[in-house]
Amino acid sequence: MKRIYSIALLLFLIVTTPAFTWWSGGHDILTQAAVKALPNEMPEFFRSTNAEKMIAHCAYDPDVSKNRNMVNARIAEHGEHYFDLELIKDNPIPENRDAFIKLCAELNLEPSKVGFLPYALAEWTERLAIAFAEYRKWPDNPMIQYKCYLYAGFLAHYAQDMCQPLHLTVNFNGIAQKDGSILHKGIHEKVDSSIEILKFKPSELVKNQSIKHVEELLPAITKQIQDGFSLVDRVYELVGDYEKLNAPSQELIDFTTDRSKESVRWTSSLFYTAWKLSETISLPGWLER
């Protein structure tokens, strides 16, 4: 009976927590730009036109994994896309997934209700770093290169979700009112669609980008979350503008451009960070590619 209750609770959480993301075409545009922005220090196989297309292709996969017919994959994937910062109150963002789950237990919170976005991003960055370490040892192995593309696609998706402010708040799709109604319900999809509807191009988003790797991964992720969360109110100030996406105001264009360029910079910086991390990774002696 307890197991049945647990399954029912998980299914309830899936229905009552956010399932939104940048529209997949938006992820495609942002990911192409992030690859274009990479410094020349990155290996050629990862900066090629083929890499650009393949990594952007793989950036769709986190959303594809939330298929309603595949319950286990959907449950596992669902909480990876958001982090409702208000729910952990004044506590610092824990340094890893296990520490976060422990904090949630102390606060009597369901971890998947808060979301796992910072840990999904950190973990995929480190997976990419390990794959890059394999590439350094076996640079002519195409399977390793394909794996780097796949891991980079997942990293890109989560990095870009982190730059959409409504992925960082309990007010992810409107603001709950005392009477139970939701003010501005539907705002999330309008924000998510803005990159595509405004017809942004990778070649435009890559201009004037200066890509640097981060020195410490979790502190950088924490800062990105805090910076994005600080823009939630700005999104709601623009709610009227989002109703007119087909005739956008300059304020909306400027805000969307800023968020898009930051998504590109952040994604590209994490690709670069994974490459730098791979310099010092020791692979197990039993591994032979």
- Ranges with pLDDT <50 over ≥5 residues? 1-19
Might you state the CATH topology name?
P1 Nuclease
What is the string of SSEs from the N terminus onward? HHHHHHHHHHEEHHHHHH
Helix content: 55-70%
Backbone shape = globular
Quickly name the level 1 CATH class: Mainly Alpha
Tally of separate helices = 16
Class derived from helix and strand content: mainly alpha
Overall strand count: 2
Strand content: under 5%
Q: What composes the largest sheet?
A: 2 strands, antiparallel
What is the CATH superfamily label?
P1 Nuclease
Compute the average pLDDT: 93
Task: Give your account of this protein's structure.
The chain has 289 residues and is mostly helical. It is built from 16 helices and two strands. The protein has helices at 2-16, 24-36, 44-47, 49-58, 61-64, 71-78, 97-106, 111-114, 117-137, 142-162, 187-197, 202-205, 217-229, 232-237, 239-242, 250-277; strands at residues 175-176, 182-183. A hairpin with a 5-residue loop joins strand 1 (175-176) and strand 2. Helix 9 (117-137) crosses helix 16. The chain starts with a helix and ends in a 12-residue tail after the last helix.
Can you tag this structure with a few keywords?
two-stranded antiparallel sheet, 2 strands, globular, 61% helix, mainly alpha, 1% strand, P1 Nuclease, 289 residues
